[in-house]
């Protein structure tokens, strides 16, 4: 798109000249925020997953994240963006179209940034959702099944959640408070991951019994490095949602870090009180639940409320993961590798409900165009009124959570059944025993020589002669 001005030659191209509607500060911030969200996935979750699993699954786990990032981008620009944010077609899905072309240089509605900004920012959201879901399937799922799963789940699950809550879907009139995706991203990934792990029990297999009982991280320092990318990247995750460099963005950022730090300290304290150990893995889990919990209300609650949400996110998911999970026969039957159900589904639901309780009316009006139709938060309804509107908002929060949960259970189940008819969902027992070398012919770390592998880990393990030597973890 070129712009001409009086006194300049008509054939002169001013490619850096901005249209009148563009706010360069908003544009610069949104590009930065989108990059930060992208860095959460690549390299953030790539490193986190690669370090948080057993050594034999480091390559496969990291590669699942890398593949999903690339696959989602292609699907997003070809059809998924418009299914999520396009013109009305059905109550649950937008009109399909291609998010490529000159028109992406035009203005994104009700903002001062180009549409290309919005397309890329929302892609980063979609990508991290699928990658978070993968945390339930690490070291279990056939990689070729995962290659099918990513585009199918993005198309028939994620886009529906985004369209119904953020787009033009049937839940739009409900005015659900979901600032940055507590429901659309975290509740959906947690429920879908747990559902896929449930099918893992029947279709993928429950995994090698020793792996289920003993699954230590292979590199805690790398795990902390990935966690650092995740935490700092959340600055763009929540800070970019207003699509502007205004007053709501820094509030969302401060609230994000307050809630996260509080949640980490609460989780760590509970570990020390109950287990007499300061667990590094526990601290990372507490960090994640804090990031997830604040997401649906980051820019519409005050800092004191963010700290309270941190206390809740550091304690409630801790109880469901460390106590309820171990006591429940049902939870014990489902092999959720990294506990994504607790860190994302439970924390995301908790954040959505707390947002309905703690959202401040003034902040709702500042963030939402029709902010008067939201809330107020239940606590403000009790103190200031009207209570009827606050109770209605809580009903909407529950309605949104119920729809996202039910849809993901049903659709994820159907996708797993469909894929199982095309390719095996579960890796065979020999591959599960060996890990990365069997799945990809590669290992994370060379233990001897010039990058050479020890013979028992080579493909000769497939012959009966060498199978006895391959029974190693």
Report on the architecture of this protein:
- The protein has helices at 24-52, 58-85, 115-134, 143-165, 182-204, 209-213, 220-239, 248-275, 280-294, 303-327, 329-333, 340-358, 361-367, 378-383, 387-420, 429-434, 436-440.
- With 473 residues, the protein is mostly helical.
- It has a single domain (28-420), classed as Orthogonal Bundle (Ammonium transporter fold), CATH 1.10.3430.
- The radius of gyration is 23 Å and the shape is globular.
- It is built from 17 helices and no strands.
Draw up the topology in text.
Elements: H1 24-52, H2 58-85, H3 115-134, H4 143-165, H5 182-204, H6 209-213, H7 220-239, H8 248-275, H9 280-294, H10 303-327, H11 329-333, H12 340-358, H13 361-367, H14 378-383, H15 387-420, H16 429-434, H17 436-440
CATH topology: Ammonium transporter fold
What would you say the CATH architecture is?
Orthogonal Bundle
Query: Could you spell the SSE succession in H and E letters?
Result: HHHHHHHHHHHHHHHHH
Q: Averaging pLDDT over every residue, what do you get?
A: 86
What's the helical proportion of residues?
55-70%
The Cα radius of gyration reads 23 Å
The main β sheet shows up as: none
Family: Belongs to the ammonia transporter channel (TC 1.A.11.2) family.
Keywords: Ammonia transport, Membrane, Transmembrane, Transmembrane helix, Transport
Pfam family, one: Ammonium_transp
Transmembrane segments: 31-50, 57-79, 118-139, 145-166, 220-237, 243-268, 280-298, 304-325, 337-358, 394-419
């Amino acid at each position: 798109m070129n712009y001409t001005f009086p006194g300049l030659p008509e054939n002169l191209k001013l490619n850096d000249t901005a249209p009148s509607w563009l706010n360069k500060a908003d544009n610069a911030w949104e590009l930065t925020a989108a990059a930060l969200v992208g860095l959460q996935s690549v390299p953030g979750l790539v490193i986190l997953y690669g370090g948080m699993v057993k050594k034999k699954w480091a390559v496969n786990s990291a590669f699942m994240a890398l593949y999903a990032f690339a696959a989602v981008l292609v699907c997003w620009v070809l059809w998924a963006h418009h299914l999520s944010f396009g013109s009305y077609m059905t109550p649950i899905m937008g009109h399909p179209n291609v998010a490529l072309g000159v028109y992406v240089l035009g203005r994104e509605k009700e903002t001062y940034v180009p549409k290309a900004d919005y397309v890329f920012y929302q892609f980063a959201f979609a990508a991290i959702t699928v990658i978070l879901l993968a945390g339930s399937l690490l070291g279990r799922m056939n990689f070729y099944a995962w290659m099918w799963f990513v585009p199918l789940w993005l198309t028939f699950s994620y886009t529906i959640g985004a369209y119904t809550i953020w787009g033009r879907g049937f839940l739009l009139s409900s005015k659900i408070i979901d600032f940055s995706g507590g429901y659309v991203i975290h509740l959906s990934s947690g429920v879908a991951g747990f559902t896929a792990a449930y099918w893992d029990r029947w279709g993928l297999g429950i995994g090698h019994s020793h792996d289920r009982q003993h699954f230590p991280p292979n590199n805690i320092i790398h795990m902390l490095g990935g966690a650092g990318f995740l935490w700092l990247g959340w600055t763009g995750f929540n800070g970019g949602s207003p699509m502007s460099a205004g007053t709501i963005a820094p509030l969302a950022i401060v609230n994000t870090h307050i809630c996260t730090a509080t949640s980490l300290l609460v989780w760590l304290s509970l570990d020390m009180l109950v287990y007499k150990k300061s667990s590094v893995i526990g601290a990372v889990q507490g960090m994640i639940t804090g990031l997830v919990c604040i997401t649906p209300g980051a820019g519409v609650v005050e800092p004191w409320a963010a700290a309270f949400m941190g206390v809740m996110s550091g304690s409630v998911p801790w109880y469901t993961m460390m106590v309820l999970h171990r006591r429940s026969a049902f939870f014990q039957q489902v092999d959720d590798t990294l506990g994504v159900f607790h860190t994302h589904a439970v924390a995301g639901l908790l954040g959505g409900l707390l947002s309905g309780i703690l959202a401040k009316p003034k902040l709702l009006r500042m963030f939402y165009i029709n902010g008067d139709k939201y809330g107020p938060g239940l606590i403000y309804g009790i103190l200031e009124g009207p209570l009827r509107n606050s109770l209605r908002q809580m009903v909407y929060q529950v309605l949104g959570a119920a729809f996202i949960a039910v849809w993901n259970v049903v659709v994820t189940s159907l996708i797993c059944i469909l894929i199982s008819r095309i390719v095996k969902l579960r890796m065979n027992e020999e591959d599960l025993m060996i890990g990365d070398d069997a799945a990809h012919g590669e290992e994370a770390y060379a233990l001897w020589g010039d990058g050479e592998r020890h013979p028992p880990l080579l493909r000769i393990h497939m012959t009966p002669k060498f199978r006895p030597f391959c029974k190693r973890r």
